[in-house]
Amino acid sequence: MSDVELRVSDDPARACAELLAAASGHLVLTGGTTPGRAYELAAELRDDWSGVELWWGDDRCVPPEHQWSNYGLARRTLLERVRTQPSAVHRIQGELGAAPAADLYDEELRGVVPDVTLLGLGPDGHVASLYPHAPGLAERERRAIAAEAQLEPYVERVTMTIPVLESAALVVFLLKGEAKAAAAARAFGAPASEVIPGSLVRSRHGETIVLLDPPAARDLGI
């Protein structure tokens, strides 16, 4: 397991966009306000995404056009802004329901090793849709599972499992704001624990980079 590299800047979304714009192969995206800004900036930096296949670390079981859809976020902020689309877009079909969508995604992920996995970190320490003490944290056979939300919005979800998330050559966490400070300190400055699922995900054979602004880094002592 690689060490974590902490990169603090006033604009972590831009730093993230630069990494995304340089990516190739299988790229796993996430949801949230800060990633949305990173996707907008990445679209400005790169107009041809044909060398990339897009995946999602998790998504809510809503239609793709729904405001809660992580795929929908990426479509609005990235895909609709670039000239050449990715070679493939592997959307979680959450509108089918959590169990069927998870089964389909699990099969689609067979044999796939992400090149870059982008993740956020919840104030409770959750990563993707893997929440503190959730049974899915122990899953090592399946690549995608159904997950029950422990924070709003309380809708069913589908999430990649830890073995897939950590198989990427580059794992990137993107955090912004004081509300993430306590979770960041426990995820990246304390021993790994199921209490903070973000502490369990590190690139097994590559790099793990954490991009955060000074308020999010407040309790890390850097």
Give the spatial strand order of the biggest sheet: 1-10-9-6-2-3-5
Q: What structural category characterises the helix and strand content? A: alpha/beta
End-to-end Cα distance: 22 Å
Helix content: 10-25%
* Binned strand content: 15-25%
User: Do you know the CATH architecture?
Assistant: 3-Layer(aba) Sandwich
Estimated radius of gyration: 16 Å
User: Which residues form runs of ≥5 with pLDDT under 50?
Assistant: none
The tally of strands reads: 10
Descriptive labels:
Rossmann fold; 7-stranded parallel sheet; 10 strands; 24% helix; 20% strand
Explain the overall architecture.
24% of the residues lie in helices and 20% in strands. With 222 residues, it is α/β, with parallel strands linked by helices. The protein has one domain (4-220): 3-Layer(aba) Sandwich (Rossmann fold). The protein is globular.
